[in-house]
Recover the amino acids of this structure.
């Protein structure tokens, strides 16, 4: 059987080491590298790994940003996303970014192995659950809102999530009250929701906050 090199990108040590211990038992594994942040990720991808098992939500970065780095490589590895988030917008963003598989963490290790093996055979694999997301949202494939926001937009979201009013947000973000309100309205429109409550739900559902 052909053997492949793997990179596990996970900032929770117990989960990363546990996944590594399980994968090391598999006959298709040649070597496993580990990364826990952007710097260690950059160091590891220089090794030309075959598969990257990538936790979407990391302390210092996120899966979309790291996928962008992988696309710049001369030899792009297969990428399987691990996530505990179920936001439809997140899944659509990941699919648009070109991932080869997506596994929900609650589905367990068997689903991880199944996705790896199917990807080895066919180049990519998506469970029925992911295929249903694609089918249900095919009509808005080109208009799905982004889940990666600018630093300023993230700071605004954090301020809103902390219960600050527009009057309180303005000095905190060093802007006028009218500018803060304009940015809030623009952000609501950008992610395709109708009010601040829906904006917060969107942010938590997709791992922005």
């Amino acid at each position: 059987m052909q053997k492949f090199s793997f990179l596990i990108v996970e900032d929770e040590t117990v989960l990363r080491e546990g996944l590594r211990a399980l994968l090391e038992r598999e006959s298709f594994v040649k070597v496993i590298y580990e990364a826990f942040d952007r710097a260690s990720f950059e160091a590891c991808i220089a090794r030309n790994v075959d598969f990257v098992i990538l936790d979407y939500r990391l302390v210092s970065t996120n899966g979309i940003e790291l996928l962008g780095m992988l696309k710049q490589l001369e030899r792009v590895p297969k990428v399987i996303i691990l996530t505990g988030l179920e936001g439809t917008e997140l899944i659509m963003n990941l699919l648009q970014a070109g991932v080869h598989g997506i596994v929900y963490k609650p589905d367990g290790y068997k689903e991880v192995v199944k996705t790896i093996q199917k990807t080895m055979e066919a180049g990519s694999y998506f469970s029925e659950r992911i295929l249903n997301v694609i089918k249900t949202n095919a009509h808005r494939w080109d208009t799905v809102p982004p889940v990666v926001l600018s630093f300023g937009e993230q700071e605004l979201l954090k301020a809103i999530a902390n219960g600050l009013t527009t009057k309180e947000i303005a000095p905190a973000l060093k802007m006028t009250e009218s500018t803060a309100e304009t940015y809030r309205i623009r952000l609501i429109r950008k992610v395709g929701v109708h009010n601040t409550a829906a904006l917060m739900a969107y942010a938590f559902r997709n791992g922005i906050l």
User: Anything to note?
Assistant: The two ends are 43 Å apart (CA to CA). Strands lie at 4-9, 29-35, 51-55, 78-83, 101-104. Residues 109-122 form the longest helix (14 residues).
